[in-house]
Design a protein that fits this description.
The structure is a homodimer. By secondary structure, chain A is mainly beta. Chain A is built from no helices and ten strands. Strand 1 (about 1-5) of chain A pairs antiparallel with strand 8 of chain B.
């Protein structure tokens, strides 16, 4: 068993098309998780993740804050306790539209699986 | 994209070795998620999940409440924002030791993958 508080896990800046965004790898290669990895993102007010698409899915749970998820022709608002599923290949971006930090869990397939590099 | 509030998802009772435990399938077969599924458990005070083991892993994030995770020779307390990884094959049980509901996310491989039936 591995048990750790989220805040003990180092937050790393997300570069490449993001702004005001940090990531914590909560459960991943650090514990040898074989199939999928759990990350927690923190977006400062006004921050955003890259607008992009890829061949793997996202399974997202909003922990706190307010934002929108942007798609090609759609933009939908979300808040705490919302769950968001981004299909493989779907273009997407998360933006913090609130006045406080936005935090969400985002689970992806492990590297080497399902097209993840 | 699929976006839904957790509380709109029906809670089902967990039988077979559990007590005071409900599950919401947040992201799973309802959206055709191919690789892993996100569930949210709610344990009433005193409630517990089954003490068992299986060949797939758990990736857990504690949303609220206080509890312990029990293993063969170990028992560890947890609280909000703790992350817990249960390895494939590791015996485990979650118990609510607090006075309010315990809620946590638990992600598992999709049915038909990694030994999940």
């Amino acid at each position: 068993m591995f048990l750790r508080n989220l805040r003990e896990i180092p937050a790393e800046a997300v570069e490449e098309g993001a702004s005001g965004t940090q990531i914590r790898w909560a459960i991943g290669e650090n514990v040898g998780a074989p199939n999928f990895h759990m990350r927690v993102f923190t977006l400062a007010p006004g921050g955003s993740t890259p607008l992009h698409e890829h061949v793997w899915e996202h399974e997202v749970f909003i922990l706190r804050g307010e934002g929108v998820v942007v798609e090609d022709t759609d933009e939908r608002a979300f808040g705490p306790e919302d769950v968001v599923y981004i299909q493989p290949g779907e273009r997407h971006q998360f933006r913090n539209t609130g006045g406080a930090d936005l935090e969400f869990i985002c689970v992806i397939p492990a590297a080497g699986r399902c097209g993840v590099k």
